[in-house]
């Protein structure tokens, strides 16, 4: 399996880092692009270095390298994820404004009818954002905001991050054990729900 991963300048760099950490322990081939704003946010939001994050991928590309394999639809892969995805990047993808490698790779992913998961990290959303996200969905992208779930009773920030990343991996068809899926109310006692 081969996955394209992009990190853009939205808050929530830990989502992309955790996804790369998980994939680095599998035999899935990863192709990574990190935007300049994401590189800044990695340093602002986390204890990780950009070099560490890049070391988690099998292949890394410069943000402006349009000669990279992932810039072409003839490069076969099993899906692309932009995690986190800024509104600026989402808007550029929605409008095919291929001014950097991330947007170009997403554009060819859509035109080749491959999976594109956008972990859009923005709130609140105005009507322009909502129309643009609906347009992305119409184009075939999966818009997946990192909204935490609480049915698994997370005990830490890691639990919340892992749940979001695990669900995102599910959307790409990557089996994982990062979170406990909902198995119905019967699997949770009333005491656990404080009823």
From TrEMBL:
Q: What chemistry does it catalyse, as a reaction equation?
A: dimethylallyl phosphate + FMNH2 = prenylated FMNH2 + phosphate
Name one molecular function that GO assigns to this entry: flavin prenyltransferase activity
Sorted keywords for this record are: Flavoprotein, FMN, Lyase, Prenyltransferase, Transferase
Key word RNA-binding present: no
Q: What's the Enzyme Commission number for this chain?
A: 2.5.1.129
Question: Per UniProt, where does dimethylallyl phosphate bind?
Answer: 151, 167
Domain Flavoprotein stretches? 1-171
The record's listing under SUPFAM superfamilies reads: Homo-oligomeric flavin-containing Cys decarboxylases, HFCD
> Do the record's keywords include Lyase?
yes
Q: Into which EC class is this enzyme placed?
A: transferase
Q: Where does FMN bind?
A: 9-11, 35, 86-89, 121
Q: Which HAMAP family match?
A: ubiX_pad (MF_01984)
Functionally, this protein is described as follows: Flavin prenyltransferase that catalyzes the synthesis of the prenylated FMN cofactor (prenyl-FMN) for 4-hydroxy-3-polyprenylbenzoic acid decarboxylase UbiD. The prenyltransferase is metal-independent and links a dimethylallyl moiety from dimethylallyl monophosphate (DMAP) to the flavin N5 and C6 atoms of FMN.
Give the family per the record. Answer: Belongs to the UbiX/PAD1 family.
* Name the record gives this protein: Flavin prenyltransferase UbiX
Natural source organism: Ferroglobus placidus (strain DSM 10642 / AEDII12DO)
